[in-house]
Specification:
Helix 3 links the parallel strand 2 (37-42) and strand 3. The chain has a domain at 4-186 and 221-243 and 299-312: 3-Layer(aba) Sandwich (Rossmann fold). With 340 residues, the chain is of the alpha/beta class. Helix content is 38%, strand content 17%.
Length: 340
């Protein structure tokens, strides 16, 4: 049983504690001591998954969001620990063939989390999302603001589950105005340790290029992304925020910087080829991803700069070079010390 002394002070709970963003947030929380208790909610122990996390400051609570009764268990935990802030980061960074399980984790799992929050409302909820929820479309403006429609993709469960999670959060915020609700839509994250749909794609030596198409691409450095989540966790800001890095580059320029070999292909051939590889599980790239090589999906990050005090330190060129493992030149940003 939790002692009365343990219940005093501020508590924060982080779902998806073993994701990159979740574990980096835990690291900062443990170092800065802004909260009295830190609850790491995940099916795995983040201290064994992410090196360097102090066990003494972080309490691991084994959590499986796909379990049907998990909302009542979460509500009990929130009440017992008097959770002040919840960070919901339990989302996949790359597609899986286990689409039903992914749906249970992200869409239904978010429903469980928000059911618990409705029963025991925290002061603040911050949710991790992605700019992919806007979808890649020919009529997209040069830069999508947070007011743009979340169109997702008709054939991508990976993207659409995240759209539905955001829609649930928006409804929760409207129904529970006393709770501060915030979502962070991250551009594709690149860096030396990032592992997601884009990093797996860009590590391949050959890359398809759709004939007649060369959309601009946008990334955010993994350190900038972790800093943005930290800022959002401590802030009072509400609503969605696009979290992006500095600058954009055409897709073919990105490939040239990475030293990848572009393979020009007509779209029908590319779809047939990628569909076959995806079906046989030879690649982790679903056919729906090809639309992001056809049309732009670039977000406007000005609201985060103005309201969240988030200022990206890394431009797109440096982000790509860090992804490649190229050290910075003298006078450039020290990756280890960026954002303190």
């Amino acid at each position: 049983m939790t002692s009365p002394a343990k219940q005093n002070g501020r508590a924060i709970a982080v779902t998806g504690a073993c994701t990159y963003l979740g574990s980096e947030l835990l690291r900062r929380l443990a170092e800065q001591r802004r909260f009295d208790r830190i609850l790491a909610l995940d099916i795995r122990d983040p201290a064994t998954f992410a090196s360097g996390l102090p066990r003494g400051r972080i309490q691991w609570v084994k959590l499986d969001l796909t379990q049907p009764t998990i909302d009542s268990e979460l509500a009990t935990l929130f009440e017992r620990e008097r959770v002040d802030t919840l960070v919901h980061a339990a989302f996949l960074s790359h597609p899986t063939h286990a689409t039903e399980w992914a749906h249970e984790l992200e869409d239904v799992g978010t429903m469980h989390v928000l059911n618990a929050c409705a029963a025991v409302p925290p002061r603040r909820i911050v949710m991790v999302s992605t700019t992919l929820v806007y979808g890649a479309h020919a009529k997209n403006p040069n830069f999508l603001t947070e007011r743009a429609e979340l169109r997702g993709h008709p054939d991508s469960r990976f993207v659409n589950d995240k759209v539905r999670a955001e829609q649930q959060l928006l409804r929760f915020g409207a129904e529970h105005p006393a709770t501060q609700v915030c979502s962070l839509r991250f551009a594709p994250v690149l860096g030396p340790t990032a592992d997601n749909l884009y990093t797996r794609f860009l590590r391949r030596s050959l890359a398809p290029v759709m004939l007649g198409h060369d959309p601009v691409m946008q990334f955010v450095h993994e350190i900038d992304a972790a800093w943005a989540l930290w800022q959002a966790t401590l802030s009072e800001c509400r609503g969605p925020f696009n979290i992006v890095g500095k600058g954009v580059l055409p897709y073919t320029t990105v490939l040239a910087m990475l030293g990848r070999v572009p393979v020009p292909m007509p779209l029908p051939m590319a779809r047939h080829f990628i569909k076959a590889l995806w079906a046989t599980q030879l690649v982790g790239l679903p056919p729906s991803f090809l639309d992001f090589l056809l049309y732009p999906c670039v977000a406007d990050g000005s609201r985060a700069v103005t309201d969240l005090a988030y200022a990206p330190r890394f431009n797109i060129q440096r982000t790509i070079l860090d992804f490649l493992g190229v050290p910075p030149e003298d006078g450039a940003i020290d990756v280890a010390s960026a954002h303190g």
